[in-house]
Amino acid sequence: xxxxxxxxxxxxxxxxxxxxxxxxxxxxxxxxxxxxxxxxxxxxxxxxxxxxxxxxxxxxxxxxxxxxxxxxxxxxxxxxxxxxxxxxxxxxxxxxxxxxxxxxxxxxxxxxxxxxxxxxxxxxxxxxxxxxxxxxxxxxxxxxxxxxxxxxxxxxxxxxxxxxxxxxxxxxxxxxxxxxxxxxxxxxxxxxxxxxxxxxxxxxxxxxxxxxxxxxxxxxxxxxxxxxxxxxxxxxxxxxxxxxxxxxxxxxxxxxxxxxxxxxxxxxxxxxxxxxxxxxxxxxxxxxxxxxxxxxxxxxxxx
Amino acid sequence: xxxxxxxxxxxxxxxxxxxxxxxxxxxxxxxxxxxxxxxxxxxxxxxxxxxxxxxxxxxxxxxxxxxxxxxxxxxxxxxxxxxxxxxxxxxxxxxxxxxxxxxxxxxxxxxxxxxxxxxxxxxxxxxxxxxxxxxxxxxxxxxxxxxxxxxxxxxxxxxxxxxxxxxxxxxxxxxxxxxxxxxxxxxxxxxxxxxxxxxxxxxxxxxxxxxxxxxxxxxxxxxxxxxxxxxxxxxxxxxxxxxxxxxxxxxxxxxxxxxxxxxxxxxxxxxxxxxxxxxxxxxxxxxxxxxxxxxxxxxxxxx
Lengths: 303, 303
What we know:
Helix content of chain A: 40-55%
Largest interface: A-B, 28 and 28 residues
CATH superfamily of chain A: Coproporphyrinogen III oxidase, aerobic
Oligomer: homodimer
CATH class of chain A: Alpha Beta
Number of helices of chain A: 9
Strand content of chain A: 25-35%
Shape of chain A: globular
Number of domains of chain A: 1
Structural class of chain A: alpha+beta
Order of helices and strands of chain A: HEEEHEEEHHEEEHHHHEH
CATH topology of chain A: oxygen-dependent coproporphyrinogen oxidase
Largest sheet of chain A: 7 strands, antiparallel
């Protein structure tokens, strides 16, 4: 069954990712918490903190099921129903402002009618990069890896899901993107040509591309020197990350409304954050260039 | 006209409050920004930062009007309408974790039908205290001052609006209050016995009580010594403040949905904030006692 197959996949992927990140960090190790959701299901949260490279991060899996909560019924526009959802969510906040924050999520969802019949199922997910100092070659590498993962599944996927990522991670109240994007897809259901198995192949190839997309960037930037002012800038930009996650992010909302585990959901929030009134970077600075790019999403690779 | 009278009142109150706070701080002064809302109205934002006492704070007034934005139509359950709203909002984040954060807001709202006829008007507002270290006598003083401001207007007001404050500033996803409360009232409209002029008298007496409710606490605690660990605790608790404001606060939402000025709305966010995974204070500590009180709102004064 798809739900078991995909859950096994994300269990293994969690192991692979946490193993590789610990190796990259060289100091901190992941702390694991298993939790149970009283309405059905639970999760395995793995959090890293105060590392050489990673100041805070989580690589979490969860599997939740049971009656669809009322708030979610309204959201999906359905009556009483049962659901199943499982996925892997990760966010990494590096110490060094030259290393970008990264987020990824891969998930699978099923909905059932009163008789327990499956009426819908879909995949969703993606991965996206949030730099504090922008190295164009890093954004290109990340996007090229995303594109490579898409191309053998459908020639239009990269273009489509890159745009959806730019649209989704848009901080409407700031009129700027959260970061330089990547991929975002949702409600990926079977069609005549594209079965759930095809979607599974696609989503897992994206999942498998994560380490290749992110780790080379970390390796390249982790030991660059930085100043106190650059660190302040990182913490200010992290404030925008918090704003997006708490005001706009549907994943966070879904977690809060389905009575997920709060500490696992909010592991995405950065460890140290600053808000200053009306802060804006100096004209012509690297910080100002970043803002400009975030206001006008860029095509990082040719398609 | 009520709207002009109340707007004049909050203009003067802004002057009085910013004057008294500058005197208390002794170093930092308020920086003023006037802004215009293109759909109608604008505001006067006054922000203080890096003071002796106040690390960051804002005392803002605004007056906004025009067609009611669509999102607000849904919120109020009405069709197309015009509105007028004005108010004073303040949040103060002190440096010293022994000094509580305070928030207050007093506002007036009118709604008009297509012919421009006023169909509804109401007052709203309140003031509430968020300590990081709890001095019971401070909470009592704050509440007693709130109660005194209420009592000559209606014997039930304090009890009712104290409870509404506890209910409103409840971080549902954490199952704890944002702070130790105070007063919260909304949709205060005319009835047979209680005219808009009565409401005006009540709301302005609460507004006039603010400095008396807060400043003696600041005076008492501003020079207490504190450790790095106590400061960390303050920054962690400030994280809960951010969570409430961005996830639950209707005032923030109202500002964002009526195209208010983002930097004026988000001045409420603290300057330095921390999030750590699954942080919880030591058993029997002062920090643990605070959490317990926040989980079970207290009656601070007799009524």
